[in-house]
Design brief:
Blueprint (H helix, E strand, L loop, with lengths): L2 E5 L4 E6 L4 H10 L6 E5 L5 H13 L2 E5 L2 E5 L10 H4 L9 H8 L1 E5 L12 H9 L3 E5 L3 E5 L7 E3 L5 H11 L5 E5 L5 H12 L3 E3 L5 E5 L7 E4 L4 H14 L1 E6 L7 H9 L3 E5 L2 E6 L9 E2 L11 H8 L5 E5 L8 H8 L3 E5 L2 E5 L7 E3 L3 H13 L3 E5 L1 H5 L5 H7 L3 E5 L1
Parallel strand pairs: 2-14, 3-13, 9-10, 17-18, 21-22
Antiparallel strand pairs: 1-22, 1-23, 3-5, 4-5, 6-8, 7-8, 10-12, 11-12, 14-16, 15-16, 18-20, 19-20
Helix pairs in contact: 1-2, 1-7, 4-6, 5-6, 6-7, 8-10, 8-12, 10-12, 11-12
Length: 417
Amino acid sequence: MAYLEIRQTGPLSGTYRVQGSKNAVLPMLAATLLVPGKTTLHRVPKIKDVNVMLEILHLLGCCSCWEGEALTIDAGNVNNWVIPEELIGQMRSSVILLAPILYRMKKAAVVEPGGCSIGRRPIDIHLYVLQALGVKLHYEWEEHIFAQADYFCGAHLFLKFPSVGATEQAILAAVTANGMTVIDNAAREPEISELCRMLRGMGAKITGDQTGRIVIEGVKELFESTCEVGADRIVAATCLSAVAVCSGEITLTGVDASHLNGVIEPFEKMGCKIWSDKDTLTAARMDKLMAIPYLKTSPYPGFPTDVQSLIMAVMSFADGQSVVEEGIFEGRFRTAYQLQKMGAAIIIENNQAIIWGGHLIGTKVEAPDLRGGAALAIAGLGADGVTTIFGYDHIARGYEDLAGMLFMLGAQAALRE
């Protein structure tokens, strides 16, 4: 059984090229189904979630080929419309395959998706989007969903919450719909623009991404294309968390710093200095790590829920009391109970975590989810002794090599078998 071994580390130094984005590449892989031919994506991270998505695409009739970080998908022979329950149960993002499968096969069958246990994540907005665009839905055996549509019809959509997944579902359906589609209260995360950039390169007509109102004029067909996946902003935030705990100075390359605006400000308040130039970001912490009186997660461009566990680990070493309010997924606080095993002074009250910075001691802990596992590694960098983190499968969903990344930045981190 693989596990991480993290030892207390002094000041960091080094350069790291941030991997391609997990949250961007998954919908991009789903979009390859829209073309009965080849699509090549560059800078694809070799992570567990990508492997699961590829397994689903293969079962649907696609072929794939790796050349370094480049991945080519040939969707010319799609012949299946059912996503196996055992695979969709491993990865929530697989639900965004509904629209592309419907486009190719006119029908699709799925079950309620799985993924990290970080709180309630209903797909009702996905289903609203599909029905508004002309899809007929039937339910069998409670969680089994059968969808059917000969074609998509343009519509005016209003999302009750700016869900990233539902926005992606709407985009993937609307690009080939008959007529115009307007998506109001759309998610504005950079991953939405990544998907739109790819689809425009395939011939889609999309405007307004990152504005909250996306307008799409449906086209009859899309074409073969090549596209590069942008940097993973959550992986970049993980590196910022590491230097915040350990001090020192690190450089990240291949990063769009503007995608991290909601993250950079809280880290600067805690005592980090962060500056960028083109696609390079440098972060340093030389002085005392300071607490943040109050921080709340919210949709982009706010502070991302995916970074909440990470900054909670950082706050465990800060001077003073910090408060984090979780505004999206209440289950993110599961990481707090593992941090408490290391001696962290954290109290959970409803949807808030109150953290008093102090002294942590390395011990055996269990990754509760993807980001929580990374947060425990960050905590281990500042804790006395050795921290052993089990549940590595969670971490492998989104990080190519978390231990290797930290090691390149000067940390004492290793993956053990």
